[in-house]
Amino acid sequence: MSSRRPDRTGLVAPAVAVLLIALLLGALVGTWPPFVAVESGSMAPGVERGDLVVVTATDRAPWGDLSTHADPEAPTRLGETGDVVVYTVPGAGGRPVFHRLAFPVEAGEDWTERADPSLLAGDCAELTTCPAPYDGYVTRGDANGLYDQSAGIAPVVPEEWIAGKALFAVPNLGWIRVGIDAAAARYGGVATGVVLVGSAGLAGGVGALLLGGLRRRGRR
Description:
The chain folds into two domains: 35-171, Umud Fragment, subunit A (Ribbon), CATH 2.10.109; 173-211, no CATH class. The longest helix is centred in the last third of the chain and has 31 residues, at 189-219. The chain contains four helices and eight strands, in the order αβββββββαβαα. The model is unreliable at 8-30 and 189-211 (pLDDT under 50). It is 32% helix and 18% strand. It is an alpha+beta fold and 220 residues long. The protein has a six-stranded antiparallel beta sheet with strand order 1-2-8-5-6-7. Strands 3-4 form a two-stranded antiparallel ribbon. The chain crosses the membrane at residues 187-211. Keywords: Membrane, Transmembrane, Transmembrane helix. GO terms for molecular function: serine-type endopeptidase activity.
């Protein structure tokens, strides 16, 4: 007499579904991971701390090339004109920066002549990033009082440092990613991954049991 084995597909289905959605989104936008969690208020009010932002590759169709706040026909992104990008300063050891492109600069240019004086902490002679050492961009968080290059957040940002640009934000969903990153930093990526998969499986199992119970009641 054979015993019927329990159906365990409900335990792993949620985790598999989340993974497939992430892979499909990554293929569509051309970046991995295809989203970033906002951890500061530097881009408020367009993007608040805890929001989850979907990003795309900088040259990905149909969203076109990079545009800055100073461009005459720049699209509106997250509350202001110009693209909001994710960039990382090599060798700095910090987390990626999620700020708006203010305007482009050329190597050797005194870019403070085209800058908003109220967003500068000094003239070109007082800034370590001026004149521009290479072609790139001046950047700024919408809620910040200074350009990144004047506040010491980053030097002029060349295009190769930019990992992606923002498409849209989902309010508060980023807290999940922030929590995962914090757990990974404290307990390690493998342990965190095991807990996440187990949690997804447990949630799927509970959901499958509830759904099965509802179906059985409906058949009575």
